[in-house]
Amino acid sequence: MSATSDTNSVRRKLIQGIGSASILSLIDPMVKAGAWAAGSDAPEKTDVKVSFIALTDCSSVVMANHLGLDKKYGVKIIPTKEASWAAIRDKLVNGENDMSHILYGLVYGLQMGIGGQQKDMSVLMSINNNGQAISLSKALYKKGVTDGASLKALMDKEKRDYTFAQTFPTGTHAMWLYYWLANYGINPFKDAKITTVPPPQMVANMRSGNMDGFCVGEPWNARAIIDDVGFTAITTQAIWQDHPEKVLGSTGDFAKRYPNTCRAVVSAMLEASKYIDASTSNKHKTAEVVSAPSFINTDINVIQDRMMGRYNNGIGKTWDDPHAMKFYNDGSVNFPYLSDGMWFMTQHKRWGLLKEHPDYLAVAKKVNNIALYKEAATATKTPLPKSDMRTSKLFDGVVWNGSNPAAYADSFKIKA
Q1: Are strands 399-400 and 163-166 parallel, antiparallel or unpaired?
Q2: Separation between Cα atoms, residue 369 and residue 71, nearest integer Å
Q3: Helices 360-367 and 338-350: crossing angle, nearest 10°?
Q4: Is residue 415 predicted with pLDDT exceeding 50?
Q5: How far from chain centre, in Å, is Cα 259?
Q6: How far are the Cα atoms of 2, 6, 13, 17, 24 from residue 10, in angstroms, in the given order?
Q7: Whole-model pTM?
Q8: What are the phi and psi torsion angles at 215 (to 5°)?
Q9: Best CA proximity match to 215, nearest among 180, 250, 254
Q10: Can you tell which superkingdom this protein's organism belongs to (predicted)?
Q11: Domain ranges of the chain
Q12: pLDDT band at 94; cut points 50, 70, 90
């Protein structure tokens, strides 16, 4: 029996060794020699559920798997479609999903205990810049509204309840909508009614007359135009050129427990991001893949035009936008700048979601996993910026650089 037991033990070890070898054989040798040279190991978890919402900016999650880039790094990305940002939040926090394509502001809201129960979070990379918009109803257009100034004029003239939708209270779309309204003297919480609607449901709600406008990611602004229920009042890149938008997020616990897995997924998504931005044909192929029912579930032309930068606002203006949705842009899209995370906290404070000023920089350093990102960037030969901060000028002329976030948050004339 002892001899049999010893034989079985040897057999089990041999089988386990073969299994491990087969997984490791998927990993590019240059990757192993580069990113893991510092004594790290292969991914601790090979099957990774990455949740997403039906939006164009989920493309790098989908394409990392579709192109087999995940296998190159020893993981299998399992794209997992969810119906709302609340579902994304809940399933990420409770561990049902491992990582997510997620609103930048949602991650920081959870870190600060707003928009959900407090949970330490990790931003692993930025997924995209630009590519969202604020749409207004055709009913408003028929009354002369074409932009923010004419909207303000109508709201002053015709007193009633005006309803605007965003996708999550602490999210990016809420902040773009509030910033835009306030620029024209409209206090989003005093002069209007704000509601939360999942992205894929925006167009149906506008069609039924439930809202005057919404802020959402593509392709739903384009869909509103094609369905003749709305028009684009402004793109978010016109509010803030190359603004932060979606990120790859996980809980802080997951990032600490599975650092090699996180690095592998980031590496695969960096390669997918580079692929998407590399050519018009790659963008067309991406639009074709993500238009499927299991992903965005809409016509390819609704997705690809604005992905290519071909814009039509639905009321007569067309243009080629050089600042359309970007996934890579020589790596500048993907770096998790500390100042980007800090900006969302300044807006949360501005609108009363945060009651006191946090230690903006300390929180950003805790959430944005820059060290891990740099390892993945090195493995994929993705260029790195010279600084962890960046400077931007928004459309109202106000400059944001992260140097004095408390003063910045308090500086706005219209706030909570």
Answers
A1: unpaired
A2: 23
A3: 130
A4: yes
A5: 21
A6: 12, 6, 5, 10, 21
A7: 0.91
A8: -120, 130
A9: 180
A10: Bacteria
A11: 47-129+244-398, 132-238
A12: very high
Find the length of the chain.
416
Superfamily of domain 47-129+244-398: Periplasmic binding protein-like II (3.40.190.10)
Nearest Cα to 415, choosing from 342, 362, 355?
A: 355
Domain 47-129+244-398 and domain 132-238 have a common topology: yes
Tokens coding 234: 């402004």
Q: Are 131 and 221 in contact (CB under 8 A)?
A: no
CA angle 85, 111, 403 (to 5 degrees): 110
Beta bridge partners of 194: 164
As given in the structure block, the two tokens for residue 213 are 């406008």
CATH superfamily of 132-238: Periplasmic binding protein-like II (3.40.190.10)
Q: Which amino acid is at 349?
A: K
pLDDT digits (tens, 9 = 90+) for 321-364: 999 999 999 999 999 999 999 999 999 999 999 999 999 999 99
**Mean pLDDT, rounded, of the chain:** 93
Q: Give start and end residues of each alpha helix (H) in 295-337.
A: 300-307
In angstroms, the CA 360 to CA 402 distance is 9
- Asked if omega into 219 is within 30° of 0 (cis), the reply is yes
Angle formed at CA 249 by CA 215 and CA 116, multiple of 5 degrees? 65
What is the tally of helices (H) and strands (E) in the chain? Answer: 20, 14
